[in-house]
Amino acid sequence: MENKTIYILAIESSCDDTSAAVLKNKKVLSNIVASQKIHQEYGGVVPELASRAHQQNIVPVVHQALMRANIDKKLLSAIAFTRGPGLLGSLLVGTSFAKSLALGLHIPLIEVNHMQAHILAHFIEGQNYRPPSFPFLALTLSGGHTQIVLVKDYFDMEILGETLDDAVGEAFDKSAKILGLPYPGGPLIDTYAQLGNPTAFPFPKPKVGGLNFSFSGLKTSILYFIQKETKTNPDFILENRNDICASIQHTIINILIDKIKEAVKYARVKQIAIGGGVSANSGIRNALKSAEKELGWHTYLPKLEYCTDNAAMIGITGYLKFRENRLTNQNISAKARYKI
Ligand code: KG4
Ligand code: ZN
Questions:
Q1: Hey, what CATH topology would domain 130-301 get?
Q2: Residues of the chain with pLDDT under 70
Q3: Which of 147, 218, 277, 316 has its CA 20 to 30 A from that of 154?
């Protein structure tokens, strides 16, 4: 099987991005992502609207992925799809579509765990770095997840820690909302933070044992702080926007870096692979670069298009599963909660 060319069509629909990709072995031939704009008006993802939008997007997105890859459906070796975790209504759209297409084309179906896929995105070819060797630590940081995972092999992963409440992306987005910034506010906090003083306003760090995270307390302390300051100065946010953003970002980065340090000590592994939309954050990137120099870590950051939700990462996982004959049968269903 190793010498045969394998073409995988992959489908991702776990949250608010409808995506399809075509891979030729480990290489991405196309990776189309339709981001749903509708949620911006509501300040967060509305599940009902997300599944409707997936329903509308899925056919054109898959069509475009095949066109861009310039291959005929008949060449496909298998269809990979996100089974979970995610929003059930959203997952059902991708799952049903993948099952029907595989059935119609008489080719195998491969179910993929979205969180495993975020990690295995490091094995996509053409990223200007060699993938990490096993074992390594993977940190998935996004609007939906925050996990530290010990990766012993492609399909042998152990969650060492995860968030007990909000995900790190939510911590960014909810803080941004308190400041009156539009959704998703993470990238805006990052932009303003670069112009501000990170130690202007100290926020408390949560006390959570082990390698778990908690971000909901931070959100509350930011809310109380802003309420208190704007009582005496209604223009407080306007006048201090950059310093507030820099201080929030600084606190979040410290929380993350402290936990990675603990994980490195615990697992005795210094290879750290990052994924998820929040890994676009300039502060996190800089902190990791400094840690490479100061602590001897080796860090891996995939191309941004493979960090945020995308079908290419589902495709590489599908390819790795296909190679090991880890196929799925037609009676499979989507799973909103699905452990690695
Ligand atoms: O992985 P992703 O695209 O979607 C999922 O949530 O699964 O991640 C989106 C999250 C949002 O919370 C967004 O605010 C955050 O990533 N984000 C950032 C930055 N870019 C995206 N947060 C902080 N700084 C950024 N530069
Ligand atoms: Zn994700």
A1: Nucleotidyltransferase; domain 5 (3.30.420)
A2: 1-3
A3: 277
